[in-house]
Amino acid sequence: MKRLGILLIAVAAVLVAPAGAGAASKERPREPFFPRAGNVGYDVTSYEAELAFAPKTGRIEATAQIEARAEQRLSRFSLDLHGLRVTAVEVDGERARFNRGRDKLKIEPRTPLPAGSGFLVEVRYEGKPRTVVDPDGGREGWVPTYDGAFAVGEPLGTMAWLPCNNVPNDKASFEVALTVPSRLKAVSNGRLLGIERGGGRSSYTWREPGPMSPYLALVDIGRGELRGGRIAGRPSWTLIDPLQEKLTLPVLAKLGEVIRFEERVFGPYPFETVGSVVDFEPSLGYALETQSRPIYAFVPDLTTVVHETAHQWFGNSVGLQRWPNIWLNEGFATWAQWYYAEKHDGRSAREIFRALYRVPASVEELWEPPSGHPGTARNLFATSTYVRGAMALEALRIKVGTKPMLRVLRRWAAAHALANANIEQFIAHAERVTGENLGPFFQRWLYKRGKP
Ligand SMILES: [Zn+2]
User: Fold this and answer.
1) Which of 145, 189, 318, 406 could form a disulfide with 208 if both were Cys (CB 3.0 to 4.6 A apart)?
2) Of the candidates 176, 181, 185, which has an alpha carbon nearest to the alpha carbon of residue 214?
3) What distance in angstroms lies between residue 344's CA and the mean position of ligand 1's atoms?
């Protein structure tokens, strides 16, 4: 994620804007920041959703099929779902009893599911999906726009339109079919499998083999031309709101170069498809690295495209085990912006680091909370998560040298590709790759309060 405004404008933009950059199982304990999110006892392998959207009323009518594996004997289980009315639930083809709790759909299959068995849940639901307000006041979930709607899910918003196991470390494949009035387009993650037209409506079916954390699922419905093609050697689909098109196209023309640059630095691009969605919702003010196809709620600048693209490696492929490890996403994507600028006639990452390091300890916004220990969900996307977080990586580069530091990043992306990892694993990994004792270094940069 990258927010407009708060981040580099307050403390850092004046100092550092790079030149030319434009402006629950046993292994799954409760999520520390969102103890209500996620469910125990099973692991999802795939989501298949069919969702019809009526822009006039803002309502959806949907069916979700969720394939999962029981990790223990299950006489009941739950899914995360925010709002909406559930009309029927089946488990393995049999009607199941269900009821609702706060942001939960609780299901009781007719016969208990044995440990280790695969099972299929079908949920029918309808209603007007809602926006979710985060602990820091940010908005996500289902966001209405002037010509349609979009859905963004970091950290919790996907439950506003899909019953799911809403934690980053239960990844699954996603297939999403979106039915909309024919004047509109509908986009999700991954590959476009097909478009069916009839009765004044069009259905767009998208498949992301992933695996993908639920928070990275994308829905975008609106006007515009759906552009297919190839970018950086991969099939690509892009939808741009017509109001944003003129200013957006020149920026997105550089996406192929950005992907190829990041492949050289971080290793092979982790997914099958690429693309972008640029919608128009000025009140939202951020971009999100939705898997294989980031979404921008405004005309992106190049440095934001670099940031969201870097998340495809750090955040999407190497996913979080738990939200407090957010540094592994945001520190890395921010450092990628600095390194891209350095290699494209901007300021060097070292210069940016030095300028920031001159910021006094009294400017707490930059230094608190420490990036490796955000403390509460309110601080998940704090300035320090990003800026101090990127400084930690540049400090590592200063300490061990550029080549070893890049080797650490590349091998990290490879070792945990399409999986989930945590900060302790990163520290151990960095020590292994460099052969240095980095415990005290990371203690200072990631965990110590105040200016390191
Ligand atoms: Zn980000």
Assistant:
1) 189
2) 176
3) 21
254 alpha carbon – ligand 1 mean position (Å)? 19
59 CA to middle of ligand 1, Å? 30
Residue in the structure block whose two tokens are 């200072």 = 444
- The pTM (predicted TM-score) of the whole model is 0.95
Residue 5 CA to ligand 1 centre (angstroms) = 14
Interval between CA 309 and ligand 1 midpoint (Å): 9
Question: Using alpha carbons only, how large is the chain's radius of gyration in Å?
Answer: 22
Residue at token pair 């339109």: 161
Helix, strand, coil shares of the chain as percentages rounded to 5?
Answer: 30, 30, 40
As a whole number of angstroms, the distance between CA 216 and CA 305 comes to 16
For 249, the enclosing helix (H) or strand (E) is: helix 245-252
Q: What span, in angstroms and rounded, lies between the C-alpha atoms of 434 and 429?
A: 9
Q: How far apart are the first and last CA of the chain?
A: 25
Tokens 């030319």 — which residue? 20
Considering only CA atoms, which of 263, 210, 201 is closest in space to residue 232? 263
CA of 382 to the centre of ligand 1 (A): 11
Q: Model confidence over 381-424: pLDDT tens digits?
A: 999 999 999 999 999 999 999 999 999 999 999 999 999 999 99
Q: How far is the CA of 311 from the centre of ligand 1 (A)?
A: 7
**In this predicted structure, what is the pLDDT of residue 28?**
59
Q: Nearest to residue 10, comparing CAs of 386, 300, 370, 389?
A: 386
Q: In this structure, what token pair is assigned to residue 97?
A: 């009893």
Alpha carbon of 329 to ligand 1 centroid (Å)? 6
Residue 183, classified by CB atoms within 10 Å of its CB into exposed (0-12), middle (13-18) or buried (19+), is: exposed
Q: How far is the CA of 397 from the centre of ligand 1 (A)?
A: 21
